[in-house]
Amino acid sequence: MTAGRPLEGFRILDFCWIGAGALVTKTLAELGASVYRVESRTHPDNLRLSPPFRPGTEGIEASGYFASRNSSKRSVALNMQTAEGRALARRLAEGVDMVSSNFRPGIMERWGMGYAQLRETNPALISLTMPMQGAEGPHASYIGFGSTIAALSGLVALSGVPGRAPVGTGTHFPDHVPNPGHALVAVLAAIRHRRRTGEGQQIELSQLESTVNVLGPAFVEAGLGRQPEPVGNRVPGVAPHGAYVCRDGAWIVVSCRRDAHWASLVDALGFAAPARFAVAAARASEEGAVDALVAAAVARHDRGAAIALLTRAGVPHAPVNSSRDIVEEKVLWERGFWRDVEHPVIGRIPINRSPFRLIDGPEAQVTRPPLLGEDTAEVLAAELGLDAAEIARLVDEKVLY
């Protein structure tokens, strides 16, 4: 086992807020990076004011949403509306390895924090920016969130049930899957490049372009002159493939991609089916009839019994779990995916680690999310040499706020 985590000693000045950027720096922190999360009480991160809140708690320190996206970081409260606050940020940027942000284009530059400005004093700096539609182009100034990115990318148009209004994915898919995932790949590539050459790197990730990447087959189909439509739970050529309700009102998903799966399903649930359905092409051509047979068979069993039967038979299936089911899932606790942390306002809460492990390396370190500005004095003393009197003055003048 190696002595330290891969990114130990790597320091990040993090201006990212909301979801996508926050997940990037959360993962880098678990890999050992020191992440200094720049915040302000005058313009707090929207997530700090967003539910869920534990009953009896509410306010800027109590958001479970913020907690889940900002574990393992340190909070530095700088009032970037003041000249001295911006000057302190620039001084911090001189000594770190990376600066990250996901504001609209131009904001970091107005603060004197753009890549071209910062590299003059820190030529090895890695810069990550995550504008919604890129830093250039006719829509560069547009703002949005995960739900608007999902709509722009074509994702919403393909979501839902045929013949009904699109249901979309909320903010969850763009903010939590493609955008942080693609950004992490780019950052790790830039770190490798820097270690080999000593050169910094400017990374611009368009969140729209990142999300478009996940819809590859639909765009191939469109390129062939066909308009892809929403298909609900169905997959072309695969039947059954859907969600079915059990006798107790719970749901399971069943997918038979092979004829052997279908034979095992029929045998496990004990229902009669036409002989022609033994072949995938016939099932796909009469998908509605296949769905009706499977739905009736599943409805005769409670979920637990259905899952036991299908598990023994080797049929691909899964329960339709709720969020609470996932938090209570013993396997995820045993594997260390969930970590209990104690928060001074929220109390004990489960925080997830990143969904990968370095088998021959140290475990990811997951610590509680910081209170706003909790680490300001310590970070400024360590990084800039500010003493207690100077920090007290800056607090009084609301530069540290």
Automatic annotation (TrEMBL):
It comes from the Bacteria. Keywords: Transferase. SUPFAM superfamilies: CoA-transferase family III (CaiB/BaiF). One of its GO terms (molecular function) is transferase activity. InterPro entries: CoA-transferase_III, CoA-Trfase_fam_III, CoA-Trfase_III_dom3_sf, CoA-Trfase_III_dom_1_sf. Belongs to the CoA-transferase III family. This is CoA transferase.
